[in-house]
Structure formats: C-alpha cells, structure tokens
C-alpha cells in the first residue's frame, strides 16, 4: 500500500500547540497536541518556553517521518501574533519570547507616540489601536531603548510563525499577515513599512518580505519536503472563505472575542472606527481586511453563569437553548433598552438588568442574547459600510447557538446569514496557502459546512 501524501501543519496557540496531517482532500488523518509549562523573562513575567517549542517541532516531525503510511510533501505553520523571536548571528534566540500581555511602560509609550504624530494620528496611519505590547512593533522599540546591547546582538526579528519556518529552512523572512496585524509597523496608506521603522534603525533587523505561498527546501532531515513561511493565525482562518467564496462576504469569528472581518472593505480607517475598536489586517494576498471587535464571548460566559446561579440551574443547559420567536417579540415589546453609554459599547448592558424581572431562566437567556446580538449588529455594521456584502458567515462558538443565529438573521434581512463549521480552520488555511506546492487536486468545495438562517427557517446545505 502506497503512502498517503500529506501536508503537516503546526498550529501554535497561546495554550495548545497542535500538529495536523491533512490528506489531499483536506481531511485530518493524524493529529497530536501538546502544552508546555511557561517560563519567565528577566523581569519575572510569564512567557512562552521557546526551547520547548523548538524541540517539539523537531521531535514531532521525526515521529511523523517514521510513519510509513504518510509521505510529508510540505510543512507550514500558523501561530498567534504580536510575538517576536530575536535571533543572533548563530540563529539562536538572544532574548526570551516576550509575552504580548506584558504591561508596556507608559513613559516609553508616551515618548514613542509623541515622536510620531500622536496616538490618534499614528493609529490611523498604521490601522493599529493603542494596545501596548500587543503592538509588536513597540516591543522592538522597547528592546532598543531598554536593552541597547541586546538589541545590537539581534540579526533578525522574526514573528513567531516565521521563526518556526526558519527552524526548518535556515531562511529568515517576514510575512505580511504577521506584519499587518495591529503591529504599528505598516503604513496602510502607503502600503509599506511606516517611516519610524527606518528612522529607529529597525528596518535592518527585519528580513525580506516574501509571499505567503512561497516554499523553501528543508534543512531538517526528512523526505525531500518543502516548508512554507508561516501565517498569523487570524489571517490563516480567513483563507478557506477567501478560497471558496468570490462574492463579497463578512466573517464573524466568535470565541472569547467576536471579530467581524470584511476582506472587501478597502476604505481607510476613520477616527470614529478606531474609537470603536476597529482595525485592519493584511490578508495572505496582501490586501487589507477591516475588522471590528467585541468581547462578547467573555460577557456571554459571565452572564450565563449569573443567570444559572440566580435561577438555580446548570449553566450547561444554555448550550442548547431553542430559539423562541414569540418570546423575543414579547421581550422586544415590553423590555426597556439595555443601559449603555458612549458610541459602540464594549458590553451589551445586560449585566445592569435585574434578573427578578424575568419569569424564568430561558426568558432571561433570550434577553441576554437579544442584547448581545444588538451590540454585534452595531459592531458588524462598522465594517459593512462601503461594500456590497451578500453573505455573512459566523464561525466559532456562537455559530452553534440557535438564539444568536436566528436573531442575527433577523437583524440582516437583506444578507444571507450562515452558520459555518470547519475542522481546524486556522490549520486548513495554512495548508491552503501553499496548495499548489503539494496538492495536484482541485480544492474541494465541501471544506466548510454551512447552515442557512432566515427569519422563518433554517436549512442545512
């Protein structure tokens, strides 16, 4: 029996690190996962154990290469963003992999933004809200200012996906999906690095930008496989939709954060959009993707617990609540609007509602979802402007929530609304980015499972 041709994808999250093998129909034929104990940086702040990650890549590949039933054609990577690995002339890291949650010195932040036109002006140019260490470019600035001797030892600053690619190829490169995600490094109007990168001497530390579909020969022993350059995970998860659908669409990716992504909105960010937590990504083909964010998954979890405790119920019950249109109509007619303030609010206001007003927990839960979806509609409409979107896809946790999906469909009657499900979208996206390098088959059209929602019916397709 001949070996199955596969692509190996390392999908590196903050918590879980996974390896997948996909066959040429993009079915998972092997997977394994690992979790590493964090280490600390020189300030005692928790950070990724980069040595454990490095060894895991080599060990996992060696294991796969010993499996006679598979023939690895290509390896690629998707990983979380806002994280640099600084390597010296010998290719080894010269610092820890600093955590993007590490507090950023206020004085250094003020100094930086004062030098480059102020926070608002700089954020508009780079499509990057002020996010401290989450703006990975500012991590480089911090290293230069606080540890100049270490900065001088850095040959290249590699975002995490590109570092993992470097481990197997020895080729240092940069990738637009990592650069173009709230790093503060890219000038979206001029479509190039922002001027501060040159002025601060950062540019010499950045290797050449290469296309997301580029592959290189591997140095690590194996089966003559090729290696991709790696992608930022948020951009990788969008690729299956870009490959499968040519008509304009919006993807609402739901989890702890609910992010509305519009790859068909090319308008520059406005001051109002920045104030409403809107930003831009660069997708794998280098085009801007306008995105707006809500912390709705977190709020849903907290408020569902509050409902369960008040009505003495098990919170698991709310995973499968069936949508009740009459109940929603009653709530809409009788309930006061949630208490909110500002422009697009960070929370729905359900937390300020008195649960004693509801006859039971299902009634309260419908109100929670009504409030959350109302906020979601406002957030999504920000990125909906100036584009002829015909479809709206929802993936992640809320795509399985009947109440959420029906309410969203009712809120956008002129747009087709679908719940989308796909096994390991981020890893599939990283595989699709290099499809032509390893796969002779046409990309299958059933990678994404869709369920259509309208005001009156749902249809699985």
Automatic annotation (TrEMBL):
Extent of the signal sequence: none
GO biological process: xylulose metabolic process
Matching InterPro entries: ATPase_NBD (IPR043129), FGGY_C (IPR018485), FGGY_C_2 (IPR049382), FGGY_N (IPR018484)
Domain Carbohydrate kinase FGGY N-terminal: 7-228
A Gene Ontology cellular-component term: cytosol
UniProt keyword terms in alphabetical order: Kinase, Transferase
Molecular function terms, GO-annotated: D-xylulokinase activity
Pfam families (UniProt xref): FGGY_C, FGGY_C_2, FGGY_N
Stored CDD domains: ASKHA_NBD_FGGY_NaCK-like
Residues in Carbohydrate kinase FGGY C-terminal domain copies: 247-305, 379-433
Family stated for the protein in its record: Belongs to the FGGY kinase family.
Descriptive protein name: Carbohydrate kinase
Organism: Mucilaginibacter xinganensis
Lineage: Bacteria, Pseudomonadati, Bacteroidota, Sphingobacteriia, Sphingobacteriales
